[in-house]
Amino acid sequence: MKLKAAILFAVLIVASACQGSTAPQGAQSTEADIDLTSPVSVTLWHTQTGTNAKALQEMVDKFNSTNGKGVTVVMEYQGGYTQLYQKTLGAIQAGALPEIAVGYESFVADYQKADVVLDLDPYVASKKNGLPKESLDDIFKTYLDTNRFPQFGNKLLSFPFTKSLLIMYQNEDVLKAAGQTTPRTWDEFEKVARAVTQKGADGKVTRYGWAAPTSASTFNGWVLSRGGRLMSEDNKAVAWDGKEGIEAAKLFQKLLGEGVAYVPKGFDYQTDFGVGKVAFVQESSTGRPFFVSSFPKDKAAPSWSITSIPQTDAAKAKTVQYGANIISFRSTPEKQLASWMFIKWFAEGDQTADWAIKSSYMPVRKSAADNASLKTYWAKDTQGKSAFDLSGTAVPEPNVRGQQDIRTVMEDMLVGIATGKLADAEKAVKDAGAKANAILKENQ
């Protein structure tokens, strides 16, 4: 989605107005150490639906009844992430922000143009209300790193919430029938995907090797898995337009052209995977329950597994990390502390394990592997444990300003290659990189 110039301008001109209703920045270390002496209510804007919304409400209810400080969190659904993002920009203009909201790193970078996001560092470091070092060290480092923003003094402006990573769903029945095994490298993947592809007498493909959605995050994963970077060292230019990105785009184009791969419509790949019409799908680890629910009901479920996406060097595996974080907006000292109390509680060991069980997101702590309830759950959801075991290979996506528009550029590039409108894959990547760098320059 594109961030319109008019909205950006409005965000900037209201920055000073937003400042007037908040406590001075320099007082935050003191505010992080205050006591709550009366009940406090804070609002959480979220995007969860269905089973996940019910699970989140249950956890919020538990926090409300057990925090012992009179803190009440009120959930308010705001639609999908695009809707929430746009509503939050509107709330910045109106001076009517919630106390807490979920959002991607790119959202935070745009919100902070108006200096409305709370720096969580003083709260983490608070002797009274903070996190002990051993607790902080237990959270996966990359989950914390993605919430630090170089353009804003490397401050911790959000906290891990719904984390996932790009993995590969593999239909074991299809591989076995074709006499193939798990591909570890991109060269192996190309050969196996081609080997499992089948065509009918009429020449039409009846089984594909690869279902390849046109996602910016997936493209980022392809680049990282080839040993590439997403940004330059100084974060002023993209790096995915180098040889790794070009190699990825060329393979994507090549296998589409051969009929080995296809770009699915919506979530059709989940059903195709379940009935054996495709061998490999590279998608978010959170998709597990949706794949399972799409399996045919009139016959046995397929044998399937989760593995790392293919790599250039399997010994140095990398994939992309994504998922939303939780943001606290500057308000009053009491509401800020109440918001932090909920954020901290949600990331504790029992809660992150419970959330992983109920939502299919990754637990944010290493120690979750020892949680008894989660281990019992993973005995049935073995693919969930496989995804968790790959958590250490996940690399955060860029969190500099302009990333929302850059993602659109990347996805337009992939669609152009897939539809044949961009016949030269290398030029398509280079042109997209130039557009992305122009966006970054505008947002310095």
Structure description:
It is a single chain. The chain has 444 residues and is α/β, with parallel strands linked by helices. The chain folds into 2 domains: 5-164 and 323-392, Periplasmic binding protein-like II (D-Maltodextrin-Binding Protein, domain 2, 3-Layer(aba) Sandwich), CATH 3.40.190; 165-320 and 399-442, Periplasmic binding protein-like II (D-Maltodextrin-Binding Protein, domain 2, 3-Layer(aba) Sandwich), CATH 3.40.190. The chain is built from 21 helices and 13 strands. The strands form 2 sheets. Strands 1, 2, 3, 6, 7, 8, 9, 10, 11, 12 and 13 form an 11-stranded mixed sheet that branches. It is globular, with a radius of gyration of 23 Å. 46% of the residues are buried. The model is unreliable at 1-28 (pLDDT under 50).
The CATH topology assignment of the largest domain is D-Maltodextrin-Binding Protein, domain 2
Counted by DSSP, the helix tally is: 21
Q: What Rg, in angstroms, do the CA atoms define?
A: 23 Å
The general outline is globular
> What's the architecture of the largest domain in CATH terms?
3-Layer(aba) Sandwich
Low-confidence stretches: 1-28
Strand composition percent: 15-25%
CATH class of the largest domain: Alpha Beta
Average the pLDDT over all residues and give the rounded result.
92
**Ends: how far apart?**
20 Å
Number of strands: 13
In total, the number of domains comes to 2
Q: Considering DSSP H and I runs of 4 or more, what fraction of the residues is helical?
A: 40-55%
**CATH H-level superfamily of the largest domain:** Periplasmic binding protein-like II
Secondary structure category: alpha/beta
The biggest sheet, with number of strands, parallel, antiparallel or mixed sense and barrel status, is: 11 strands, mixed
